[in-house]
Amino acid sequence: MTEPTIARRAYDGDRPDGVVSFREMQHGTADDYALLDRYERLHAGGLADRLLDTLARLTDSLGGYQISRLEHSLQSATRARLDGAGVDWVVAALLHDIGDELAPYNHSEFAASILQPYVPAEVHWVVQHHGVFQSYYYAHHLGGDRHARDRFADHRWAPLCVQFCADWDQNSFDPDFPIHELSSFADDVREVFGRVAWAPEVVAVGSERLVA
Fold first, then answer.
1. In which region does residue 65 sit, left (phi positive, over 0), alpha (psi from -120 to 50) or beta (all else)?
2. Could you give the 3-state DSSP secondary structure of residue 4?
3. How many CB atoms within 10 Å of residue 195?
4. CA–CA distances in Å: residue 127 to residues 124, 195, 206
């Protein structure tokens, strides 16, 4: 079961205080849940900065590569930016592997879930499926099926995912590629995660292209 997709604005009133009256949710009152809603929206308003902090710590995970996971994320986002991609795709490229730290075997779904309430549907879909599309480049070396992505061949956004992986992911492990600093993406992250979560006009299908 998925969570309710009710549009939520960040809380912009006075900082709430107090606690609810209940010890079991079934006993909560309308006032209790109104209070919790203010706390939740206040907390959600800090998501962009928490994501930036999490990215900054991706410096020592997944050894064996010539660059850190942070550098890979920055290189991917830098390539997207230099290609002229819009802010949704730049931020998607920046965050696409943020799940490696806590969800190493389903990192794509982890990152996609973070993005979903704030980006167009095709951006969410590409991030959600980039893991299987990326496996085209290595699965056959480990006894897997590099063509696993073919089961999505008829999906309208499969070409976007192929392009995302080819242009911004599989080639972003180069220690000599000049990357943009994390701080240069802060405004982009805050723009995306400063939107009204689950707003229909946000999560609807946008431009079905990576670059305008």
1. beta
2. coil
3. 17
4. 5, 19, 15
Whether 9 is in a domain gets the answer no
The arithmetic mean of pLDDT across residues 152-156, rounded, is 97
Task: Return all residues near 19 (Cβ < 8 A) that are at least 6 apart.
Answer: 35
32 occurs within a structural domain = no
The residue behind tokens 């806590």 is: 102
Q: Which two tokens stand for residue 152?
A: 């999505």
Q: What is the pLDDT of residues 56-115, one digit of tens each?
A: 999 976 789 999 999 999 999 999 999 999 999 999 999 999 998 889 999 999 999 999
Indicate the pTM of the whole model: 0.93
Structure tokens at 145: 């099926």
The domain that holds 143 is classified in CATH as: 1.10.3210.10
27-55: pLDDT as tens digits: 999 999 999 999 999 999 999 999 999 99
Q: How many domains does the chain have?
A: 1
